[in-house]
Protein backbone atom coordinates (compact mmCIF):
# COMPACT_ATOMS: atom_id res chain seq x y z
CA UNK A 1 0.00 0.00 0.00
CA UNK A 2 1.22 3.47 -0.84
CA UNK A 3 2.65 5.29 2.16
CA UNK A 4 3.10 9.03 2.53
CA UNK A 5 5.34 11.51 4.28
CA UNK A 6 2.94 11.62 7.20
CA UNK A 7 2.28 8.79 9.60
CA UNK A 8 -1.20 8.15 10.88
CA UNK A 9 -1.62 7.69 14.62
CA UNK A 10 -4.72 5.55 14.23
CA UNK A 11 -4.99 2.76 11.68
CA UNK A 12 -8.43 2.06 10.23
CA UNK A 13 -9.05 -1.65 9.71
CA UNK A 14 -11.47 -1.96 6.84
CA UNK A 15 -14.08 -4.61 6.20
CA UNK A 16 -13.40 -5.43 2.57
CA UNK A 17 -16.46 -7.45 1.66
CA UNK A 18 -17.12 -8.52 -1.89
CA UNK A 19 -20.66 -7.24 -2.06
CA UNK A 20 -23.34 -9.23 -3.82
CA UNK A 21 -26.98 -8.51 -4.50
CA UNK A 22 -27.99 -10.88 -1.71
CA UNK A 23 -26.61 -8.44 0.87
CA UNK A 24 -29.51 -6.11 0.32
CA UNK A 25 -32.32 -8.45 1.27
CA UNK A 26 -35.57 -7.05 -0.05
CA UNK A 27 -33.99 -4.22 -2.04
CA UNK A 28 -34.99 -3.89 -5.65
CA UNK A 29 -32.94 -5.88 -8.17
CA UNK A 30 -30.22 -3.92 -9.86
CA UNK A 31 -26.96 -4.13 -11.77
CA UNK A 32 -24.33 -6.50 -10.37
CA UNK A 33 -21.94 -5.16 -7.79
CA UNK A 34 -18.25 -4.93 -8.60
CA UNK A 35 -15.18 -4.19 -6.46
CA UNK A 36 -12.40 -1.92 -7.68
CA UNK A 37 -9.16 -1.27 -5.81
CA UNK A 38 -7.82 2.19 -6.61
CA UNK A 39 -4.71 3.80 -5.18
CA UNK A 40 -6.56 4.95 -2.07
CA UNK A 41 -9.97 3.25 -2.04
CA UNK A 42 -11.64 -0.11 -2.21
CA UNK A 43 -14.71 0.91 -4.17
CA UNK A 44 -17.80 -1.31 -4.14
CA UNK A 45 -20.33 -0.14 -6.73
CA UNK A 46 -23.04 -1.21 -9.14
CA UNK A 47 -21.86 1.30 -11.76
CA UNK A 48 -20.67 -0.26 -15.01
CA UNK A 49 -16.97 -0.89 -15.50
CA UNK A 50 -16.29 2.30 -17.43
CA UNK A 51 -18.14 4.52 -14.96
CA UNK A 52 -16.60 2.75 -11.97
CA UNK A 53 -13.07 3.22 -13.33
CA UNK A 54 -13.72 6.90 -14.04
CA UNK A 55 -15.14 7.38 -10.56
CA UNK A 56 -12.16 5.64 -8.99
CA UNK A 57 -9.73 7.91 -10.84
CA UNK A 58 -11.70 10.96 -9.78
CA UNK A 59 -11.72 9.91 -6.13
CA UNK A 60 -7.96 9.32 -6.15
CA UNK A 61 -7.33 12.80 -7.58
CA UNK A 62 -9.47 14.34 -4.82
CA UNK A 63 -7.71 12.27 -2.18
CA UNK A 64 -4.38 13.57 -3.45
CA UNK A 65 -5.71 17.06 -2.72
CA UNK A 66 -6.59 16.07 0.86
CA UNK A 67 -3.06 14.68 1.28
CA UNK A 68 -1.41 17.73 -0.30
CA UNK A 69 -3.14 20.22 1.98
CA UNK A 70 -2.36 18.23 5.13
CA UNK A 71 1.01 16.72 4.17
CA UNK A 72 2.73 18.39 7.13
CA UNK A 73 0.70 16.37 9.63
CA UNK A 74 1.40 12.95 11.08
CA UNK A 75 -0.20 9.85 9.58
CA UNK A 76 0.36 6.80 7.43
CA UNK A 77 -2.19 5.13 5.20
CA UNK A 78 -1.83 1.37 5.60
CA UNK A 79 -5.17 0.29 4.10
CA UNK A 80 -7.43 1.58 1.39
CA UNK A 81 -10.53 3.46 2.52
CA UNK A 82 -13.87 1.77 1.96
CA UNK A 83 -16.38 3.42 -0.37
CA UNK A 84 -19.83 2.25 -1.48
CA UNK A 85 -21.49 3.93 -4.44
CA UNK A 86 -24.92 2.94 -5.77
CA UNK A 87 -26.94 3.91 -8.80
CA UNK A 88 -30.27 3.85 -6.93
CA UNK A 89 -31.57 5.30 -3.70
CA UNK A 90 -33.15 1.97 -2.72
CA UNK A 91 -29.85 0.06 -2.72
CA UNK A 92 -28.11 2.88 -0.85
CA UNK A 93 -30.84 2.96 1.79
CA UNK A 94 -30.83 -0.80 2.18
CA UNK A 95 -27.05 -0.91 2.59
CA UNK A 96 -27.20 1.67 5.39
CA UNK A 97 -30.06 -0.15 7.11
CA UNK A 98 -28.57 -3.65 6.91
CA UNK A 99 -24.94 -2.79 7.62
CA UNK A 100 -25.33 0.04 10.16
CA UNK A 101 -29.02 0.25 11.16
CA UNK A 102 -29.03 3.82 9.81
CA UNK A 103 -31.96 5.58 8.15
CA UNK A 104 -30.60 7.37 5.10
CA UNK A 105 -33.86 9.13 4.22
CA UNK A 106 -33.24 12.48 2.57
CA UNK A 107 -29.50 11.96 2.16
CA UNK A 108 -27.41 11.50 -0.98
CA UNK A 109 -24.33 10.37 0.89
CA UNK A 110 -22.99 9.64 4.34
CA UNK A 111 -19.78 8.99 6.27
CA UNK A 112 -20.12 6.33 8.96
CA UNK A 113 -17.54 5.18 11.47
CA UNK A 114 -18.35 2.17 13.64
CA UNK A 115 -15.52 0.72 15.66
CA UNK A 116 -12.66 0.01 13.30
CA UNK A 117 -14.80 0.39 10.18
CA UNK A 118 -14.87 3.66 8.26
CA UNK A 119 -17.13 3.94 5.20
CA UNK A 120 -18.39 6.56 2.80
CA UNK A 121 -21.60 5.65 1.00
CA UNK A 122 -23.42 7.57 -1.71
CA UNK A 123 -25.94 7.15 -4.47
CA UNK A 124 -26.61 9.08 -7.65
CA UNK A 125 -27.54 9.07 -11.29
CA UNK A 126 -24.61 7.69 -13.31
CA UNK A 127 -25.65 10.04 -16.12
CA UNK A 128 -24.98 13.02 -13.82
CA UNK A 129 -21.63 12.16 -12.25
CA UNK A 130 -20.88 15.74 -11.23
CA UNK A 131 -23.62 15.65 -8.58
CA UNK A 132 -22.31 12.36 -7.22
CA UNK A 133 -18.78 13.75 -7.19
CA UNK A 134 -19.80 16.67 -4.95
CA UNK A 135 -21.31 14.30 -2.41
CA UNK A 136 -18.26 12.02 -2.39
CA UNK A 137 -15.84 14.96 -2.18
CA UNK A 138 -17.72 16.20 0.90
CA UNK A 139 -18.08 12.84 2.64
CA UNK A 140 -14.59 11.79 1.60
CA UNK A 141 -13.12 14.67 3.56
CA UNK A 142 -15.00 13.56 6.68
CA UNK A 143 -13.55 10.07 6.27
CA UNK A 144 -10.03 11.48 5.87
CA UNK A 145 -10.38 13.96 8.74
CA UNK A 146 -11.81 11.36 11.12
CA UNK A 147 -8.41 9.70 11.36
CA UNK A 148 -6.17 12.72 11.05
CA UNK A 149 -7.89 15.04 13.57
CA UNK A 150 -9.11 13.64 16.91
CA UNK A 151 -10.82 16.90 17.96
CA UNK A 152 -11.69 18.84 14.81
CA UNK A 153 -14.52 21.28 15.59
CA UNK A 154 -17.73 20.83 13.63
CA UNK A 155 -17.47 24.19 11.85
CA UNK A 156 -14.02 23.29 10.50
CA UNK A 157 -14.99 19.72 9.60
CA UNK A 158 -18.09 20.81 7.68
CA UNK A 159 -16.39 23.90 6.27
CA UNK A 160 -13.55 21.90 4.74
CA UNK A 161 -16.01 19.30 3.46
CA UNK A 162 -17.97 22.02 1.65
CA UNK A 163 -14.75 23.60 0.34
CA UNK A 164 -13.83 20.27 -1.27
CA UNK A 165 -17.41 19.51 -2.36
CA UNK A 166 -17.44 22.43 -4.80
CA UNK A 167 -13.86 21.89 -6.00
CA UNK A 168 -13.08 20.79 -9.54
CA UNK A 169 -10.82 18.25 -11.19
CA UNK A 170 -8.76 20.00 -13.88
CA UNK A 171 -6.98 17.30 -15.85
CA UNK A 172 -5.18 15.39 -13.07
CA UNK A 173 -5.34 18.07 -10.39
CA UNK A 174 -8.02 19.14 -7.95
CA UNK A 175 -8.63 22.86 -7.53
CA UNK A 176 -10.51 24.59 -4.71
CA UNK A 177 -11.17 28.28 -4.32
CA UNK A 178 -14.67 29.00 -5.69
CA UNK A 179 -16.96 31.52 -4.06
CA UNK A 180 -20.45 30.54 -5.30
CA UNK A 181 -22.60 33.57 -6.02
CA UNK A 182 -25.65 32.01 -4.32
CA UNK A 183 -23.66 31.22 -1.16
CA UNK A 184 -22.27 34.72 -0.97
CA UNK A 185 -25.76 36.17 -1.45
CA UNK A 186 -27.06 33.94 1.35
CA UNK A 187 -24.35 35.19 3.71
CA UNK A 188 -25.02 38.84 2.81
CA UNK A 189 -28.75 38.35 3.33
CA UNK A 190 -28.14 36.67 6.69
CA UNK A 191 -25.94 39.54 7.78
CA UNK A 192 -28.58 42.10 6.79
CA UNK A 193 -31.26 40.16 8.70
CA UNK A 194 -28.94 39.59 11.66
CA UNK A 195 -29.23 35.79 11.34
CA UNK A 196 -25.54 35.00 10.97
CA UNK A 197 -24.59 32.96 14.01
CA UNK A 198 -22.22 34.87 16.33
CA UNK A 199 -18.78 33.30 16.33
CA UNK A 200 -18.87 32.32 19.99
CA UNK A 201 -21.96 30.17 19.49
CA UNK A 202 -21.00 28.91 16.05
CA UNK A 203 -17.43 27.98 16.92
CA UNK A 204 -18.50 25.96 19.94
CA UNK A 205 -21.50 24.23 18.34
CA UNK A 206 -21.14 20.50 18.86
CA UNK A 207 -22.16 17.59 16.68
CA UNK A 208 -25.48 16.96 18.43
CA UNK A 209 -26.59 20.60 18.04
CA UNK A 210 -25.49 20.62 14.40
CA UNK A 211 -27.33 17.38 13.62
CA UNK A 212 -30.46 18.69 15.34
CA UNK A 213 -30.53 21.62 12.89
CA UNK A 214 -30.01 19.18 10.01
CA UNK A 215 -32.92 17.00 11.17
CA UNK A 216 -35.52 19.61 12.11
CA UNK A 217 -34.48 22.89 10.48
CA UNK A 218 -32.80 24.43 7.46
CA UNK A 219 -29.08 23.67 7.78
CA UNK A 220 -28.00 25.44 4.59
CA UNK A 221 -26.84 28.60 6.36
CA UNK A 222 -24.82 26.54 8.84
CA UNK A 223 -22.98 24.79 6.02
CA UNK A 224 -22.44 28.01 4.10
CA UNK A 225 -21.17 29.87 7.14
CA UNK A 226 -18.83 26.98 7.98
CA UNK A 227 -17.46 26.99 4.41
CA UNK A 228 -16.97 30.75 4.55
CA UNK A 229 -14.96 30.51 7.77
CA UNK A 230 -12.60 27.92 6.30
CA UNK A 231 -12.28 29.98 3.12
CA UNK A 232 -11.59 33.09 5.20
CA UNK A 233 -8.83 31.42 7.23
CA UNK A 234 -7.19 29.93 4.13
CA UNK A 235 -7.47 32.73 1.57
CA UNK A 236 -8.74 36.07 2.93
CA UNK A 237 -6.51 39.12 2.67
CA UNK A 238 -3.95 37.32 0.51
CA UNK A 239 -3.89 34.31 2.85
CA UNK A 240 -3.10 36.47 5.88
CA UNK A 241 -4.50 33.86 8.29
CA UNK A 242 -3.44 30.70 6.47
CA UNK A 243 -0.23 30.03 8.36
CA UNK A 244 -1.94 30.33 11.75
CA UNK A 245 -4.89 28.24 10.61
CA UNK A 246 -2.70 25.38 9.44
CA UNK A 247 -0.68 25.61 12.66
CA UNK A 248 -3.96 25.39 14.61
CA UNK A 249 -4.89 22.25 12.70
CA UNK A 250 -1.44 20.80 13.28
CA UNK A 251 -1.89 21.16 17.04
CA UNK A 252 -5.21 19.32 16.81
CA UNK A 253 -3.49 16.62 14.76
CA UNK A 254 -1.03 16.21 17.63
CA UNK A 255 -3.86 15.76 20.13
CA UNK A 256 -4.48 19.28 21.44
CA UNK A 257 -7.97 20.37 22.49
CA UNK A 258 -9.19 22.63 19.74
CA UNK A 259 -10.27 25.68 21.75
CA UNK A 260 -6.97 25.91 23.61
CA UNK A 261 -5.14 25.40 20.31
CA UNK A 262 -7.12 28.23 18.73
CA UNK A 263 -6.38 30.63 21.58
CA UNK A 264 -2.70 29.68 21.51
CA UNK A 265 -2.25 30.19 17.78
CA UNK A 266 -4.46 33.22 17.17
CA UNK A 267 -3.66 34.82 20.53
CA UNK A 268 -7.27 35.77 21.21
CA UNK A 269 -9.63 35.01 24.08
CA UNK A 270 -12.62 36.64 22.41
CA UNK A 271 -13.87 35.19 19.10
CA UNK A 272 -15.44 38.57 18.26
CA UNK A 273 -11.99 39.90 17.30
CA UNK A 274 -11.83 37.30 14.53
CA UNK A 275 -15.48 37.93 13.70
CA UNK A 276 -14.81 41.60 12.98
CA UNK A 277 -12.07 40.67 10.49
CA UNK A 278 -14.32 38.06 8.92
CA UNK A 279 -17.18 40.53 8.44
CA UNK A 280 -14.85 43.02 6.75
CA UNK A 281 -13.73 40.27 4.35
CA UNK A 282 -17.33 39.23 3.72
CA UNK A 283 -18.34 42.77 2.83
CA UNK A 284 -15.71 42.96 0.08
CA UNK A 285 -15.86 39.33 -1.16
CA UNK A 286 -16.89 38.76 -4.76
CA UNK A 287 -18.11 35.57 -6.48
CA UNK A 288 -15.51 33.33 -8.12
CA UNK A 289 -16.61 30.62 -10.56
CA UNK A 290 -13.44 28.74 -11.42
CA UNK A 291 -15.20 26.34 -13.79
CA UNK A 292 -16.59 29.22 -15.84
CA UNK A 293 -13.19 30.94 -15.89
CA UNK A 294 -11.47 27.73 -16.97
CA UNK A 295 -14.04 27.20 -19.72
CA UNK A 296 -13.39 30.74 -20.96
CA UNK A 297 -9.64 30.16 -21.04
CA UNK A 298 -10.15 26.77 -22.69
CA UNK A 299 -12.23 28.36 -25.46
CA UNK A 300 -9.68 31.12 -26.00
CA UNK A 301 -6.72 28.71 -26.08
CA UNK A 302 -8.26 26.13 -28.41
CA UNK A 303 -9.56 28.94 -30.59
CA UNK A 304 -6.10 30.48 -30.77
CA UNK A 305 -4.66 27.19 -32.03
CA UNK A 306 -7.48 26.86 -34.56
CA UNK A 307 -6.84 30.36 -35.92
CA UNK A 308 -3.07 29.84 -36.07
CA UNK A 309 -3.63 26.80 -38.27
CA UNK A 310 -5.40 29.12 -40.70
CA UNK A 311 -2.58 31.66 -40.62
CA UNK A 312 -4.54 34.11 -38.43
CA UNK A 313 -2.54 35.54 -35.53
CA UNK A 314 -4.62 37.90 -33.35
CA UNK A 315 -2.68 40.61 -31.56
CA UNK A 316 -5.15 41.15 -28.71
CA UNK A 317 -7.78 39.19 -26.83
CA UNK A 318 -10.47 41.40 -28.29
CA UNK A 319 -9.36 40.59 -31.85
CA UNK A 320 -9.11 36.90 -30.92
CA UNK A 321 -12.67 36.94 -29.60
CA UNK A 322 -13.90 38.82 -32.66
CA UNK A 323 -12.27 36.30 -35.02
CA UNK A 324 -13.75 33.34 -33.15
CA UNK A 325 -17.17 34.94 -33.36
CA UNK A 326 -17.00 35.90 -37.04
CA UNK A 327 -15.72 32.44 -38.01
CA UNK A 328 -18.33 30.64 -35.87
CA UNK A 329 -15.73 28.71 -33.90
CA UNK A 330 -17.01 26.14 -31.42
CA UNK A 331 -15.35 23.67 -29.11
CA UNK A 332 -16.70 20.80 -27.01
CA UNK A 333 -15.16 20.73 -23.54
CA UNK A 334 -15.06 17.50 -21.58
CA UNK A 335 -13.81 18.94 -18.32
CA UNK A 336 -15.69 18.55 -15.04
CA UNK A 337 -17.24 15.17 -15.96
CA UNK A 338 -19.56 16.73 -18.51
CA UNK A 339 -19.58 17.80 -22.14
CA UNK A 340 -20.21 21.47 -22.80
CA UNK A 341 -20.41 23.23 -26.15
CA UNK A 342 -18.37 26.43 -26.12
CA UNK A 343 -18.95 28.92 -28.93
CA UNK A 344 -16.83 31.89 -29.92
CA UNK A 345 -18.68 35.17 -29.46
CA UNK A 346 -21.03 33.79 -26.80
CA UNK A 347 -20.93 36.58 -24.23
CA UNK A 348 -22.31 34.28 -21.54
CA UNK A 349 -18.92 32.52 -21.54
CA UNK A 350 -17.07 35.69 -20.58
CA UNK A 351 -16.75 34.96 -16.87
CA UNK A 352 -13.95 37.55 -16.77
CA UNK A 353 -13.52 40.55 -19.07
CA UNK A 354 -10.86 40.37 -21.78
CA UNK A 355 -8.12 42.86 -21.02
CA UNK A 356 -9.01 46.26 -19.69
CA UNK A 357 -6.41 46.55 -16.96
CA UNK A 358 -7.31 48.12 -13.64
CA UNK A 359 -7.77 46.37 -10.29
CA UNK A 360 -10.75 44.22 -11.29
CA UNK A 361 -10.09 40.58 -12.21
CA UNK A 362 -9.62 40.08 -15.96
CA UNK A 363 -7.81 37.96 -18.56
CA UNK A 364 -4.72 39.26 -20.35
CA UNK A 365 -2.09 38.12 -22.81
CA UNK A 366 1.29 37.63 -21.13
CA UNK A 367 4.97 37.75 -22.03
CA UNK A 368 7.64 35.12 -21.34
CA UNK A 369 7.86 36.21 -17.70
CA UNK A 370 4.09 36.14 -17.26
CA UNK A 371 3.80 39.91 -17.18
CA UNK A 372 0.45 41.00 -18.58
CA UNK A 373 0.61 43.00 -21.79
CA UNK A 374 -0.96 46.44 -21.46
CA UNK A 375 -1.88 46.61 -25.16
CA UNK A 376 -1.63 44.68 -28.40
CA UNK A 377 1.22 42.27 -29.10
CA UNK A 378 3.07 41.63 -32.32
CA UNK A 379 1.52 38.91 -34.42
CA UNK A 380 3.50 35.68 -34.17
CA UNK A 381 3.19 32.16 -35.41
CA UNK A 382 3.50 30.92 -31.82
CA UNK A 383 0.44 31.07 -29.54
CA UNK A 384 0.66 33.79 -26.91
CA UNK A 385 0.52 33.00 -23.22
CA UNK A 386 -2.61 34.01 -21.31
CA UNK A 387 -3.33 34.57 -17.65
CA UNK A 388 -5.87 35.99 -15.26
CA UNK A 389 -4.96 39.16 -13.37
CA UNK A 390 -6.14 40.10 -9.86
CA UNK A 391 -8.14 36.90 -9.49
CA UNK A 392 -8.59 35.62 -5.93
CA UNK A 393 -7.58 33.30 -4.32
CA UNK A 394 -5.13 32.61 -7.17
CA UNK A 395 -4.45 33.43 -10.79
CA UNK A 396 -4.80 30.90 -13.61
CA UNK A 397 -2.26 30.60 -16.44
CA UNK A 398 -2.30 29.13 -19.96
CA UNK A 399 1.14 27.80 -20.86
CA UNK A 400 2.03 26.46 -24.29
CA UNK A 401 4.15 23.60 -25.53
CA UNK A 402 5.13 23.97 -29.18
CA UNK A 403 6.58 20.79 -30.72
CA UNK A 404 8.77 20.76 -33.82
CA UNK A 405 5.92 19.13 -35.69
CA UNK A 406 2.26 18.98 -34.89
CA UNK A 407 -0.07 21.49 -33.27
CA UNK A 408 0.75 23.34 -30.04
CA UNK A 409 -0.75 22.10 -26.80
CA UNK A 410 -1.46 23.97 -23.58
CA UNK A 411 -1.85 23.32 -19.90
CA UNK A 412 -3.67 25.24 -17.20
CA UNK A 413 -2.05 25.89 -13.84
CA UNK A 414 -2.49 28.28 -10.96
CA UNK A 415 -0.13 30.05 -8.58
Q: How are the SSEs placed, and which strands pair?
A:
Layout: E1 34-37, E2 41-45, H1 49-69, E3 81-86, H2 89-100, E4 109-114, E5 117-123, H3 129-148, H4 154-165, E6 168-170, E7 173-175, H5 181-192, H6 199-203, H7 207-216, H8 220-239, H9 242-253, H10 258-266, H11 272-284, H12 290-309, H13 317-326, E8 330-333, E9 340-343, E10 362-366, E11 385-389, E12 396-401, E13 409-414
Parallel strand pairs: 2-3, 3-5
Antiparallel strand pairs: 1-2, 4-5, 6-7, 8-9, 10-11, 11-12, 12-13
Helix pairs in contact: 1-3, 3-4, 4-8, 8-9, 9-10, 12-13
Describe it for me?
The chain has 415 residues and is an alpha+beta fold. The chain has 13 helices and 13 strands. The chain has helices at 49-69, 89-100, 129-148, 154-165, 181-192, 199-203, 207-216, 220-239, 242-253, 258-266, 272-284, 290-309, 317-326; strands at residues 34-37, 41-45, 81-86, 109-114, 117-123, 168-170, 173-175, 330-333, 340-343, 362-366, 385-389, 396-401, 409-414. The strands form four sheets. Strands 1-2-3-5-4 form a five-stranded mixed beta sheet, sandwiched between helices. The radius of gyration is 23 Å and the shape is globular. The chain starts with 33 loop residues before the first strand and ends with a strand.
